[in-house]
Amino acid sequence: MARQRTPAEALKNPHTYKLRRLRALTQYGFFALFLLAPIFNLLRFDLTERQLWFLGMRWSLGLDALVAGQISATDAAWSLVLRAFVPGLLLVTVFLGIAYRYGRLYCGWLCPHFSVVESLNKLLHRTCGKFSLWDKQRTPLANVPGISRPQPHLWPLFALSCLSMGFVWAITLLTYLLPPEIIWSNLWHGTLTGNQARFIGIATLVFSADFAFARHLFCRFGCAVGLFQSLAWMANPRALVVSFDRARARDCKTCDAPRGSACDSVCPMRLQPRNIKRKMFSCVQCGQCLDACDTTQTAQQRQPNLEWQVGADALRETLRQRVQSASSQSAPD
């Protein structure tokens, strides 16, 4: 009889390792881009010059030239259409087109806020065994050995991390509006203006509170970018979904998670991945539930019960969910 693999051994699965590494690289890369974009004028709006910078170049809409009498009103109108409305429409179309097909892919794979959310989730779990201060009970991670026991001495580190990330976000957002070299110089020499100091102070408190208390709650209920992605995703029955093999639902009862299933424990949005699509409205397609399922089931020499499906397979899954939901609602109490 073949020996069952431990969760630690299952974590070495090449497929799940490649997925985790690819997602980590995209998150780290986009977070670095978020911090460095204003420094290299890749994208920012300078309030002092009233000037938009894009890819290191000044992006003019032609309005200043119109005021100076250098171009006609017709030329200014065409410049506004070609340099503002067309790029904006193209950006929104591509962004929602990707969301229509793949859901909140930006949130789960790129968003710098969500990257911080996940990092703080892991640190909080190490500290008290919970992913959120609002969780009623601890949530063990069956597929991550060695971190299920709370370490209360990490509370100061968690608080400092929230405060530090709030400060970083406040400084970075200010550099999107004012010249970065001036902000960093004033900060270094302690010569911030009153408005700069107030912005940094208030923004630091707001973001620190968000990272400490809200995190995934903001992502689920307060983020407009995530909301529009979810709406586009829900409108497409062929969009990428996490499919659950209910014919083998019994395998979930022997999942290694002490409470419920491993997939329920790891979701950073605190969702239940085996639920119907309507109740997975804020899924960010991070794949952690698939990773956890693959790890625990592989450790028991079984195939995972969760998988991504898109296109015709996703449509069949959506229709099956609708039939099941209708049957459960029509069933007598």
Would you write up a description of this structure?
This protein is mostly helical and 333 residues long. The chain has helices spanning 7-10, 14-36, 63-67, 73-102, 105-109, 112-128, 155-175, 180-189, 194-214, 216-221, 224-234, 262-266, 288-299, 312-330; strands at residues 43-46, 51-54, 57-59, 241-244, 306-309. Helix content is 57%, strand content 6%. A three-stranded antiparallel beta sheet has the order 1-2-3, with no helix packed on it. A two-stranded antiparallel ribbon has the order 4-5. Strand 1 and strand 2 form a beta hairpin. Helix 7 (155-175) crosses helix 8. The longest helix has 30 residues, at 73-102. It is flat and about 75 Å long.
Brief descriptors of the model:
single chain; 333 residues; three-stranded antiparallel β-sheet; two-stranded antiparallel ribbon; 14 helices
Task: Reconstruct the topology from this structure.
Elements: H1 7-10, H2 14-36, E1 43-46, E2 51-54, E3 57-59, H3 63-67, H4 73-102, H5 105-109, H6 112-128, H7 155-175, H8 180-189, H9 194-214, H10 216-221, H11 224-234, E4 241-244, H12 262-266, H13 288-299, E5 306-309, H14 312-330
Helix pairs in contact: 4-11, 6-7, 7-8, 7-9
Structure, briefly:
The chain is mainly α and 333 residues long.
Strand percentage: 5-15%
What series of H and E elements makes up the topology? HHEEEHHHHHHHHHEHHEH
The termini sit apart by: 46 Å
SS-based class: mainly alpha
Cα-atom radius of gyration:
24 Å
Shape: flat
Give the averaged pLDDT, no decimals.
83
Number of DSSP strands? 5
Strand order of the largest sheet: 1-2-3
Subunit arrangement of the protein: single chain
- List the total number of helices: 14
- Main pleated-sheet profile: 3 strands, antiparallel
Low-confidence segments: 1-12, 142-146
Which percent bin holds the helix content? 55-70%
